[in-house]
Amino acid sequence: MHQRWEQLAYFHWAYDPAEVQSHLPDGLTVDTFDGSAWVGLIPFEMRDIQFGRTPAIPHFGTFTEINVRTYVVDAHGRRAIWFFSLDVPLASVTAAARTIFGVPYCWSHTEHHVSGVHHHYTFDRQWPKPGTGVWANASIAFDVGAEIVEPSDFDHWMSARWALVSKRFGRLDYGRVFHPPWPLHEVENVNINESALRAAGLSAPHGPPHARYSPGVPVSLAWFERI
After folding, report:
1. Residues 180, 51: contact at Cβ < 8 Å?
2. What's the burial of 34, exposed, middle or buried (CB within 10 Å: 0-12/13-18/19+)?
3. What residue spans define the domains of the chain?
4. Strand partners, 81
5. Cis omega before residue 128 (within 30°)?
6. What whole-number distance in Å separates Cα of residue 66 and Cα of residue 69?
7. Ranges assigned E (strand) in the chain
8. CA-to-CA distance for 64 and 121, rounded, in angstroms?
9. Which residue, among 139, 137, 135, 92, has the nearest Cα to 112 in the 3D structure?
């Protein structure tokens, strides 16, 4: 499957590894940097989804997505992404992704407004109702700053992820992801109000997030394989 991830922003908060580990399935270990687990709130534009050499899917292949994720290591020592939620505005995409890939997509009202360097993402989840009793929504506003010529070790650690893991039919599946290095920019004037992390069962994040922006990259995903 091929697509583009554009106008993407990373907002990451440090967490106690034990807390994040308690929300992971057996067979995965939380990945850490400088002794902390990191949970990200990631808004972006999904563009031009296509399967194999078929044309891009009209309408259903382009939408605004906002996901909550962390970083894990599987039983073979491979680093990957674990998603707590992925909010998109299409119920059909939500149903297909949950059924076929076991990825926890959620149906939401999502919007993205751009004015010059200023971006404003919002979402309000419609389904499913979280078991935590916290309704998931977010308002994420920021300005794009200067390009980062030499990304830090942490920038590379959180952005250079070549796989994701999902749980389907009681088993863990591993999907390889291929993309060039993310071109990164500074992020300024961040203003975030969100309940998505608490809706995932995590404690509320503390302090300002580590923030980065990327104009985007082309992405290819391999079919999942059982771990």
Report:
1. no
2. exposed
3. 2-226
4. 71, 164
5. yes
6. 10
7. 2-15, 29-30, 37-50, 63-73, 79-88, 105-115, 118-127, 137-147, 163-168, 171-178, 185-194, 210-221, 225-226
8. 9
9. 139
User: What distance in Å separates the CA atoms of residue 160 and residue 179, rounded to the nearest whole number?
Assistant: 9
Residue type, 79: R
Structure tokens at 27: 């067979």
DSSP string, 127-152: ESPPTTSPPPEEEEEEEEEEE-SS--
* Cα distance between residue 16 and residue 31, in whole Å: 11
Distance CA 185, CA 212 (A): 6
pLDDT in tens, 45-84: 999 777 777 765 666 568 999 999 999 999 999 999 999 9
The CA distance from 63 to 69, in Å, is 19
SS3 68: strand
Mean pLDDT across 93-116: 93
Distance (Å, rounded) from C-alpha 187 to C-alpha 118?
10
Whether the pTM exceeds 0.90: the reply is yes
Please check whether the domain covering 2-226 is classified as CATH 3.40.50.620.
no
Tokens 């203003």 sit on residue: 191
pLDDT at 44 (0 to 100) = 98
Give the tokens for residue 58.
């009209």
pLDDT at 88 over 60: yes
